């Protein structure tokens, strides 16, 4: 399925786009890399923060979904998508956010579904979703695809073919309970929900795949500091606002070691500088000891990515023909990920896992 | 037109919602009120910051739009909608954002259009838009309204009536060039674009109405500080991130005094505490010397608002019948605003303006 081009969009969409970050300043290299979280960090974080109050309802949905697909031996992928927010102290109207529309996650989920995976889609609320992303209300206003004919709303003939394809897939996925959508907004909600889903998915062992495409905040404001040390952590000095944030514990290592130890875990590394991309990706592999980092550059992420493992790196690129035909790079990424997942399942089987 | 209820949404939408701020902590009262901007602030801001590079193309679109409607003596309203962002220093992937889906602005724009105003819709890119908001890809997935019949995509009969109404209005508005959509993302883009549009609108004098529903950031990072004083303004101390922000100049007074001095200006005041709402609204009127503040509470903003002028306050509330029938509060707000705009036009006419 070809992607809709958000730059052109539908007839009534704006020509000007304001939200794309400049490559030259998009990633701050003055910030240090933080160490991986250890069991004590985990205890601290999950003990000192209150779980979201809706978590038990999600827990049941996830358990039902996993059970349903486990019975039919279907593999399950958790796709995370979109950016997490960090509410500023005592002020949830204002928050720190990460640039991400959720395109990578939503598109990847579609290709996993087409390859017979069941998908748990842990996404930023109001970010792009599988299938409906093709008719997002802002880049492609769906009303522009419709006409009035004989007093009825009808789909313009020239869009029928593509829309029918999308609709069929959308209906099939929902009728067969293949997609479970779970929203998050804050990094706090994300971490609690990720841990919950990971622990529930651990029951299917190597048949679970983690595909972590969400843009997770680096910094947060510990809830312990909100009531007690208000003045220290947020000061207004001469009209200025000073916000003092702590690094988010790097829980990927906990996912690998403890929450879902025999599942395959894929993370993403977004950079702007080609020179350091591989090094950064390998650094993440070393720190967290998982299977695969998919490296990508902000400026070329829709046309090429690099698969980095401990002993290999493999570029996956769209050909110019594919670019001209609006082929999604995810249509190349997902089969490659699935191939590696199948190899890992075979390995674990040999080990009796 | 009744509003779609985002809590229920379409059959495949999630039951859980994660992005609604808690009323008890949504607005930080420890922050001081900043004084209105004076001409020197204005000079400083617009001299020390580079205008967005697309501004000249917008300038032409706005001028054409104003000219087109001025010839037919149509009144024009500028509706601002959605939240502005503040990119963190040297890092546009991370930014401070304000909670706002753009519902108030998008819905209000529809009712202005139905009252024969032309609308310049200055909105956060990817926030809700007039008409298409009814079928947003996330709360009401439009694919859920469609069925496959005789090998074609068709609109489900039970949704035909409402969708036809929306489609007719959408087509009419675009065929008659009644809606000009201009996006922003950062507070910087917002301020430059607001100034530009205000100055262009000043040529139609009192026939212009400013309806400022956007959630504008209180703080920003001056661009002057980005290259020179990196260490001072963003420090990582022991892994912590310290962000040091300046208050955004309060340009509403410049809009009133200098950019569009004889137009009607309506601003919004969002609070969480009913006790201080009127006082805060009147404080804004005093500071900026404009005509009308519409006060609203985070927890009840969809069912009641209060019109505050220097010598009056008037609550506008949906009846329980109207609430049950999903009537938009904006269907009551806009006629009231228009009434006051007409009175102001009469007044200005008597003064020969």
From TrEMBL, chains A, B:
Region feature Disordered, mapped onto this chain: 1-33
Biased composition (Polar residues): 1-27
Listed GO MF terms: phosphopantothenate--cysteine ligase activity
Domain (DNA/pantothenate metabolism flavoprotein C-terminal) ranges: 204-303
GO biological process: coenzyme A biosynthetic process
Annotated InterPro entries: CoaB-like_sf, DNA/pantothenate-metab_flavo_C
Similarity annotation: Belongs to the PPC synthetase family.
Annotated protein name in UniProt: DNA/pantothenate metabolism flavoprotein C-terminal domain-containing protein
UniProt organism field: [Candida] arabinofermentans NRRL YB-2248
